[in-house]
Structure formats: structure tokens, C-alpha cells
Amino acid sequence: MPPNARAAAFARMPALRDALGKRYPKMRNAKVNAVSPQRRLKNDLILISALLCVLLLAGLCLLFLQKEGDTVSVSVNGELYGRYSIYEDRVVEISANGGSNRLVIRDGKAFIEAADCPDGICAAHRPISGTRQSIVCLPHGVVISIVRVGDADAPDVVV
Q: Can you give the residue range of the structural domain that contains 89?
């Protein structure tokens, strides 16, 4: 236990201070540097405000750094099933793992219109159009994501 913590314990417990005061004479008259409730509230508000600012900045960075994709990439069980232009309206039937999903590409967005999987989470997903967005159907092993074809051949890091 650090010396400051011992001093605080002695100041809060007079009986303990009196009983052990002979053993620790320097702590007999120890004072606690307590923070007033108003100061504590002010510190809490400063901390909460700082955290909210950091979260807001992170959200804005993610929002503005997201690129528009130009291709819908469909993978089944980790293998490429097909790539389709996001600007060309079409309906794609995806058959995989004993089931089927109907992918609709319309107005620059892609979404699952119908799926015969048990949970139907992929069909309830909102339409996607950005490069960091994807739709996943776990029962059928289907992953639909938006990519930029020009960025696929670009290196991840330039040294």
C-alpha cells in the first residue's frame, strides 16, 4: 500500500489512527487531500466531453474516408462467385450450400431481396454502396461486398 493511501486510511478512521499511531508516528496527524463534490463533477464532465469529442471525430473520419465502390463482389465459401457493376441494375440468383439468395443491384446499391436461410438476417440488412460495407449470409456462406476495381491492384503500402 502506498504511503498516501495509508495516510488517507488513517485520516478516515480515527480509531485505527489512534490504535496504530504509535507504530506510524508520521501518520498520526495525516490530512486527506479530498476532492470536493463540485470539483469531482467538473472533472467528470470534462472527461465525458473529451470522450464524446473523440468518438465524434472517429465517426466523422470513418464517414468521410469511406469511398464509393464501383463493383459488387460476391464470394461463396471464400471463393469468388462473381463481380458485377454497381451502376448496372440487375438481379443475381446465388445458389450455395443447398440454398439460394437473390441479390438485387439497383440505383448504385446492392441488397438481398430474398433468401431461404433459416434466420433471414441477410435479407433484413440495409442496402450497401460503400467500400467498407458488406452483407453476410452465414448459413449459405455468402459474402457480398463493395470494392473498387482500380484499387484491387494497388499496393496496400508504399515504401
A: 71-152
